[in-house]
Amino acid sequence: MAQSLVVKVTAGMDAPERCSQAFTVAAVAVASGARVSLWLTGESAWYALPGRAAEFSLAEAAPLPDLLESILAGGRVTLCSQCAARRGIKQEDVIEGVRIAGAQVFVQEVMAEGTQALVY
User: Fold this and answer.
1) How confident is the model at residue 1 (pLDDT cuts 50, 70, 90)?
2) DSSP E strands, 4-120
3) Smallest Cα–Cα separation from 120: which of 49, 55, 47?
4) Helix, strand, coil share (%) of the chain residues, nearest 5
5) Which domains, from first to last, does the chain contain?
6) What is the pLDDT of residues 28-87, one digit of tens each?
7) Which residues, in sequence order, are CB contacts of 91 under 8 Å at separation 6+?
8) CA 82, 86, 91, 96 torsion: positive or negative?
9) Phi, psi at residue 115, to the nearest 5°?
10) In what order do the strands lie in the sheet with 115-119?
11) Spatial distance between the Cα atoms of 47 and 12, rounded to a whole number of angstroms
């Protein structure tokens, strides 16, 4: 059974290095064969919208759209329901493959046996 990793990213352009680290770790974990669930919360919520990841830029970092694409291809991406609501984001607004879910789902994922969790 593959190991599971839940990555919760709270940062966006307000803390670009932290944001990039979260996406990079999630993408590397997917490439390594782990079951990955990336949670977009706080300012990272904007990256659930089409085109927003392309606005992100950080020297010496992998492009955020590429990282997000690889995570979506091999893992799960979830937008926090409260974060979405505060920003007026609805399910029909997000990138295909991104779901909106709340704290109960996050807790279930984190508490699953064999799961590691990281918060950025």
Assistant:
1) low
2) 4-9, 35-40, 76-80, 98-101, 115-119
3) 47
4) 45, 20, 30
5) 4-119 (3.40.1260.10)
6) 999 999 999 999 999 999 999 999 999 999 999 999 999 999 999 999 999 999 999 999
7) 99, 100
8) negative
9) -105, 135
10) 98-101, 76-80, 35-40, 4-9, 115-119
11) 8
